[in-house]
Amino acid sequence: MNTYSVSRLALALAFGVTLSACSSTPADQQPSTQTAPGTTARPILNAEEAKNFTPAAYFQSLAPNAAAWTPSAISLPAQPDFIVGPAGTQGRNPYHHSGGGGCRNCPSL
């Protein structure tokens, strides 16, 4: 093998490498290397599959035409039933006098 054939082989190899580098796919057009966050046991659901996992679906009645259960509003009494204080006294509600000023229904504080 003489130098002329080696040079020609090197030139052909360099030309091939140059062409392959020029013809490679741009980075923004290459397929993504990221993997989806789901697994086979816990896949990511599409919109059709996910529609069953809403509060209304969780609290629906087993009766076919009944409405889904919804919680009622919480109502608190205006005055507490019990006020904690030392034994033998009426006790005191710290929130009752939070605005300052006395109250004619309460003993002196």
UniProtKB/TrEMBL annotation:
Record-listed E.C. numbers: 3.1.2.-
Keyword annotations: Hydrolase, Signal
InterPro entries tied to this protein: Pectin_lyas_fold
Any GO molecular function: hydrolase activity
Signal peptide start-end: 1-23
Location of region: Disordered: 85-109
Hydrolase listed as a keyword: yes
Domain of life: Bacteria
UniProt protein name: Pectinesterase
Organism: Klebsiella pneumoniae subsp. ozaenae
